[in-house]
C-alpha cells in the first residue's frame, strides 16, 4: 500500500477533475461557495479538464454566483 503525503506537502486541498462537465460545474460552484465562507486562503482548490476555455468559463460563472 502506498503512503499518502500530508496535506502540507500538496499545493491544493481539492482538485476537481472534469470540472467543465455537467456535474463538475455544480461541484465547482459548491466548492467556491464553501471556500468563500471560510477564512481567506484556508481552502486551496483547483479545476482540471480537457478544455481550458470551458474551465475558465466555469470558474467565471462560479465567481459570478458568489
From TrEMBL:
Gene3D superfamilies: NAD(P)-binding Rossmann-like Domain. It comes from the Eukaryota. PANTHER family: SACCHAROPINE DEHYDROGENASE-LIKE OXIDOREDUCTASE (PTHR12286). This is Saccharopine dehydrogenase NADP binding domain-containing protein. It comes from Cirrhinus mrigala. InterPro entries: NAD(P)-bd_dom_sf (IPR036291), Saccharopine_DH-like_oxidrdct (IPR051276).
Amino acid at each position: 500500500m502506498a503512503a499518502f503525503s500530508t496535506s502540507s506537502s500538496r499545493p491544493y486541498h481539492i482538485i476537481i477533475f472534469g470540472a467543465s462537465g455537467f456535474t463538475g460545474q455544480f461541484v465547482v460552484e459548491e466548492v467556491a461557495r464553501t471556500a468563500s465562507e471560510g477564512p481567506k486562503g484556508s481552502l486551496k482548490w483547483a479545476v482540471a479538464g480537457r478544455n481550458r476555455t470551458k474551465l475558465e468559463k466555469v470558474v467565471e460563472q462560479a465567481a459570478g454566483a458568489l
